[in-house]
Write the structure tokens for this entry.
Amino acid sequence: MQYYLYFKSLHLIFIVTWFAGLFYMPRLFIYQIEASEKPEPESGILGKQLALMAKRLWFIITWPSMVLATLFALIMLYLNPYLVQMPWMQIKLGFVVLLFAYHFKNHQIFKQLQRGEVNYTSKFMRIWNEGATLILFAVIFLAITKSAVNWLYGLFGLLGLAILLMLGIRLYKRIRDKNPEA
């Protein structure tokens, strides 16, 4: 079981780097979308640089981190298969499935923007950017408390967090509209 803690440590390290990528990618999407709305040559210069930054972040940090976090999670479940029978773990794994869906949707958006296709607004991306935050809160609370009993409280807490995040986005938009340099 001593090895289990090494795998758990590696799993957590790659979860952190995976989420770092998932937090920053939608921010880069926002910048790419806003750059596409600027006149040339600014649009072309910014677009090219932002596309390069997104490509490096996605393929050098985010994808490898997802693969390694998943690998170490599977090893941990192999070493402790009884975990899958626990209600809190089943709920956590449900959120992990949502996290994979979020990751793959980001990949789709990444590919579209790399081709110069803008199918979303920067406002939508600001809201989309909070998806990883909500999943992270749910997974961390489930993993630390190991409780599915208080699931309703957690659900209401997540909804409250989502509302606060939306209010924060609106407030930031108002500030930004008054001062475009903010």
The chain has a mean pLDDT of 90.
